[in-house]
Amino acid sequence: MISKKILNPMYSDYFKIRAKNLMVILLYPMIIGFILEVLVQGLSFTTFPNLSENLLFSILIFFLINSIVCFRYGKKLVNLVIIVFYAILFIETGLYLLFQTRFNASYIYVILNTNFNEIQEFGSVYYQNNLIWLSLFFLPLFNFFPKTIFAKAKFNRKHIFSSSAIVLLILILLKFSSLIVWNLPYISIKSYFQYKAQVDSFEAFNSKEKNISTQLVLDNETIVIVVGESTTSTHMGLYGYNKETTPRLTNLSDSLYVYKDVISSHVYTTASIYDIFTLANYENNLPAFTLIDYIKDAGYKTYWLSNQRPVGFHDNIVSRLASSSDETLFLSYNDYRHNTLYDDVLLPKLEEKIAQNGKKVIFLHIIGTHYDYANRYPKEYEKFKLNKKDRNRDIINSYDNAVLYNDYVVSEVIKLVKNKTKKSAVLYFSDHGEEVFDTSDFFGHFQDKPTTGMYQIPFLMYLSPDYDKPEDFEVKTDRAYMLDDFPHSLTHLLGIESEFLDKRRSVFSSNFSKRPRIVQDSIDYDKTFKFRSNQ
Fold it and tell me: Between 20 and 30 A from 428 (CA), which of 88, 177, 284, 475?
């Protein structure tokens, strides 16, 4: 028996749903979304599977509403369910209109590692006029909902149970069919718990006592690693770009090793940084010690200086990796202004650290050329002018200005180390690249629509004349290299030897062995993207 206490407080008043009106309300956003997608982007292989899933999901919502309407606060619950349903379809359609991709796990990972300031910039950058049409989604909420779907009726226990049974059957059907991969709530919940499990596993491993056995065979003093953000080598004059975006690094090129064929393993920060700073790669995901663990055990003091905020909406792997350093400093921690600090704010802090005695490795995590590009450089670096008439051209020019300012920051780091230290090195790379209307009518970086620019990154190295090099040190700047092998390369350059470190994976070793570059854990970069470029 269902107690009346859990039913509507007006025990004599129960409600049912006017089925036809509810069907109109549920089908309306599906039809509008389908029409907008076809008109703006045309049909694709995902159009009808996604439409089928949405139809099945709307049927589920229909019977869910019928099963809860009689309960206490039933009308309010129904209102909430409909609003959530509309929001889900609104998000799905909006993402497709903007990026021609369906919602997937990578969006959740990015959201969990994003702060409010980045959300603001994302909205301002990616807002487009065609999104105004999405306002059509909400017309039924004013014209039909909620007045026309409720009707008073007698309480019907069989109706509740039958509706609940149908909801359960549809859930089972979704779960065991291929359509579940298109369901936004399912993807969101599953991805969140997968991400949380990865973070918890990483944290649990980090909390254990670490028994690392390393041997240091070289004698060097100061190594600075500059970790960039969203910078593609395809927009750098140093790499042949047709604009002079890197004049300072070009002037320093005689003292630099400029590696020409380096890519990231992923196109978003969390996954890429995880691969760069652990021994995990597509061949294994063992919870091996982090790069910072090896460096510390070998006797180097480690510093992490960042112009990025330490957390997003969820504690993230990047900040946890950073926290394993001996000293960690996030300069943007308390700065929540719309305009972020420019990266040169790190230079005085770097100068302080390199002046300290002892062997040290300093990681500089800069914001680089992350969108909104126009917020990444001061006014005096607006070399490529914006005219507000050609949006795409202005975005390209803003990005190139950001690269120009990035050139200044990286070159200043090199000059600082060059002038104030001995037995020193500087390495610079970006966590991933960026597409800026080069091979696609698109800008940004998204896993579901990858381009070469999203993977192609700068990789530069400066070594002081007195740097103590490994015996097998060899420079071949045209080697095909992927950043998930960076721990092997850096430890080799530092002269750190240990059981799991492999010189065949070091780009600086004469023993370097080329291996397949598998991006996103499943795509052979050289076969896929180089084949496309030859078409």
Answer: 284
Closest CA relative to residue 247, chosen from 55, 406, 29: 406
Strands (E), 249-314: 257-259, 262-263, 301-306
Q: What are phi and psi of 507, to 5 degrees?
A: -70, -15
How large is the C-alpha radius of gyration of the chain? 27
Calculate mean pLDDT across residues 3-18: 47
Of the candidates 226, 258, 250, 241, the residue with the CA atom closest to the CA atom of residue 410: 226
CA distances for 458 relative to 294, 404, 488, angstroms: 25, 14, 18
DSSP 8-state class, residue 71: B
Spatial distance between the Cα atoms of 333 and 371, rounded to a whole number of angstroms: 19
Contact predicate 444/371, CB 8 Å: yes
pLDDT of residue 295: 97
HEC states along 3-62? Answer: CHHHECCCCCCEEEECHHHHHHHHHHHHHHHHHHHHHHHCCCCCHHHHHHHHHHHHHHHH
Q: What residues contact 66, with CB distance under 8 A and at least 6 apart?
A: 16, 17, 159, 160, 163
Q: What ranges do the domains of the chain cover?
A: 7-195, 212-533
Type and span of the H or E element at 459 = strand 459-463
- 450 CB-near residues (< 8 Å, 6+ apart): 267, 519, 520, 523, 529
| CATH superfamily membership of 212-533 | Alkaline Phosphatase, subunit A (3.40.720.10)
Q: In the numeric block, which tokens belong to residue 271?
A: 């996954």
Q: pLDDT tens digits, residue range 413-442?
A: 999 999 999 999 999 999 999 999 998 877
Record the pTM. 0.71
Question: CB neighbours (10 Å) of residue 425?
Answer: 22
Residues 218, 274: Cα–Cα separation, whole Å: 27
Omega cis (within 30) before 219: no
Beta strands of 74-218 (E only): which ranges? 150-153, 214-216
CB atoms within 10 A of CB 502: 17
Integer Cα distance of 92 and 447 in angstroms? 16
- CA distance linking residue 476 with residue 459, whole number of Å: 13
**CA triple 62-66-69, angle to 5 deg:** 130
First-to-last CA distance in the chain?
69
